[in-house]
Amino acid sequence: MNSPTANKHLETTADGQLKHFLSTSNHSRENLTRILELADSFISFGKREIKKVPLLRGKTVVNLFFEPSTRTRTTFEIAAKRLSADVINLNASRMSTTKGESILDTVYTLEAMHVDLFVVRDGASGTAELIARHLPDDVRVINAGDGRHAHPTQAMLDMFTIRHYKGAFENLKIAIVGDILHSRVARSQIHALRILGVKDIRVIGPKTLIPTKIESMGVVPYYDMDKGLDGVDAILMLRLQHERMEGQQIPSQQEYFYRFGLTSRRVALAASDAIVMHPGPINRGLEISSRVADGPQSVILPQVTNGIAVRMAIMSLLMGGQNSMGGKK
Amino acid sequence: MSRLEILNGRLLDPLNNIDGVSDVFIENGRVIAIGTAPDNFDAETQINAEGKIVCPGLIDLCARVRSPGADSAYALEKELRSAVAGGITRLVCPPDTMPVIDMPATALLEQDLAADAGLARIHPIGAMTRKLEGLLLTDMAMLDEAGCVGVGNALKPIADTLVLRRAMQYASTYDIKVFLTPFDPYLLGNGCIHEGALSTELGLPSIPEAAETVAVARDLALIETAGVRAHIHLLSSARALEMIQHAQSRNLPVTASVAAHHLHICETDMPHFDPNFKVLPPFREAEDRQALRDGIKNGVISSVCSDHQSRGRDTKLAPFSEASSGVIGLQTLLSLTLRLADEGVCSLSQAIALLTSNPAREISIDSGHLAPGQAADICIFDPNEMWELSSDTLYCRGNSSPFIGQTLKGRVSHTLIDGQLVYPFS
After folding, report:
1. Which among A1, A187, A217 has CB closest to B271?
2. Which residues of B have a CB under 8 Å from any CB of A?
3. What CATH topology corresponds to B57-362?
């Protein structure tokens, strides 16, 4: 009955192929590595004059976003279009009071139009999984962020970026900094790093932003940023939702930046070739100084570029699995 | 003159220290003899209870049947059918109905609606504050006269400690019992799952253990100064239980009960995002579950309730944080409590006491036992019968339960209220 095993079955086919991509935690190292390798081959496409490949020709992808997003939705749209899929963007709003019935009704209606892949974002943890459980077997779901739970494609583009700059994962030291409590990105990063072999994963923040028993996820919490950054190979910054937490989880922006802002002085505590990452959009002067964000160790913009290749890789692997199952409908 | 006899069953009546094969004789709705038939007793109806256990009808200290409410009388009947199918003859219902039980008229209405259905009886808990808003006291003495077994504020914690203190003092004036469900409203917040490794993993808003311990600490301090008799419902944590045990050892007039599902399930049993496991208070850790079982063993917890709620299927088809909380429990109460005896937590007789004489004492009624002269509210069950919990075997409207699809042991064959056979349904 217990945890991750329960979901493995949902996210992979009987022969171990990717079926849905709802989390990083329910996938094997092998499958995560396949995504990274395939994404490598897609990177070069972005530089060509004709950027399209026909892998998803004739397939319909719906970006179903119940929560506003421009960056993530745009990269998914570009990724799908470069794979030659037909893409529909739906920014469906729903009030928190309208229950899941209406989420599923929306999904069923779209499914009746023969959608092949749903890319779903929602403010509640577990929505992508709920949808995946209620769709026919041949329809695929990618989680583009559910509540505080998971944002697996973001985590995979981060893994891709780390691998690109740092090579093998095994001996890396990685620090994730900021609002761990509310961050779906952090949770997915932690699982992906652990599965890919990183042993030294640190989370850094005040106790109000580090969830209880975080050690059970295989990380070590640090409440002193200077100590936490000591010798790390990559610094993964998180966005602080300061408008929601000032005076509650953090006393003020000034105090937060003083203790947990990433400055040049702090970057110098990490390994000399450490990279600085951020899922964006960044709050300059709140969680990261402009000098660092725009500095030589920042790979924040390459992350965005990599995001397209990684999402192309995940989409084509999911749909590849679909084809190998003997077509559809 | 109607006469009925129950023959060859194992009679279990914990209050009267009876445990053995013994016949029960009923006339005009009352038990008139145990063991030997009275002279010239000529029963019209015989129930052969061979191989079965005959015990007092079960009393459920906390169940919600949403009556009065927006639903029809037919909906109430379904819930009450589920109750008697589970061997329950009396239900104690919290006041969070629509309208709230904060006036004598609504308290009487609630009892009348149940009486009309002719199945299990309902004993209302009256509201402690008007509309459960936590601001103004209700007419507690009148609610008491209208049949309420006590007052409480259901799942809505009274935030203002002064209001709670006055409510307890006022209740104490008339020796009215207060029923408290311990939540600190601020620590409860919008949490939907125990704060622990699983809430961290799933990124769900959580309810810390302190939401319960802070409330119990406050309740106990006020109970002591007000001198009010109190019952704490739906305990979930080891720490809170410890505090109640300490209070009892100092002779504070406080008792405690727990929902049956909390004695069997903890955080690590929960499949991810499954609303069948969404309850309030939330399932906590293995140590908490063990402590609650120990509390049954050492008597700190004196009753087990169902905390039954029928939730519409659509309200469970939602992301976990938005799904309704609450599960069905009327038909699982007996099996889950018998399981405690099977697992060595308590004896069979103690298990039955948790569902009969003990809750009767909590609501100060002379019931939950079968001495001659008692109303013949009786449950007959086969302790070894295996049955599957499914939509097909449930009579209530909801079917959300962490035990759905599982095979349970111990099944009710007959339920009598006032000597009338109300289950199986005719």
Report:
1. A1
2. 195-204, 206, 208, 268-273, 314-315, 317-323
3. TIM Barrel (3.20.20)
Residue A288 φ/ψ, nearest 5 degrees? -150, 140
Are the Cβ atoms of B273 and A126 closer than 8 angstroms? yes
A9 CB neighbours in chain B (<8 A) are: none
Q: Structural domain tally of chain A?
A: 2
Instruction: Tell me the CB-side half-sphere exposure of residue B122, using CA atoms within 13 A.
Output: 33
| A219 Rama sector, left if φ>0, alpha if ψ -120 to 50, beta otherwise | beta
A140 in B contact zone (CB under 8 Å): no
- A205: chain B residues, CB-CB within 8 Å: none
Q: Which amino acid is at A174?
A: I
Distance from the A216 Cα atom to the nearest Cα atom in chain B, whole angstroms: 6
Residue A65, CB half-sphere, CA atoms under 13 Å: how many?
Answer: 16
Return the residue matching tokens 């179903």.
Answer: A64
- The pTM (predicted TM-score) of the whole model is 0.93
Fold adopted by B3-54+375-423: Urease, subunit C; domain 1 (2.30.40)
Task: State how far residue B321 is from chain A, nearest Cα, in angstroms.
Answer: 7
Q: For residue B338, give the H/E element and its range.
A: helix B333-342
Residues A116, A143 within the same domain: yes
Rounded average pLDDT per 10-residue block, chain B, 426 residues:
93 98 97 95 95 98 91 87 98 96 97 94 98 98 98 96 98 98 96 97 97 98 98 97 98 98 97 97 98 98 97 88 96 98 98 98 97 97 98 95 97 97 94
Candidate from B208, B268, B319 with C-beta closest to A130: B319
Taking an 8 Å cut-off on Cβ atoms, the answer to whether A127 and B319 are in contact is yes
Domain that holds residue A205: 152-300
A 10 A CB-CB count for B54 gives: 26
Q: Are A277 and A302 in contact (CB under 8 A)?
A: no
* A279: CATH: 3.40.50.1370
Q: Where are the domains of chain B?
A: 3-54+375-423, 57-362
Q: How far is residue B248's CA from residue B257's CA, in Å, rounded to a whole number?
A: 14
Residue A323 included in any domain? no
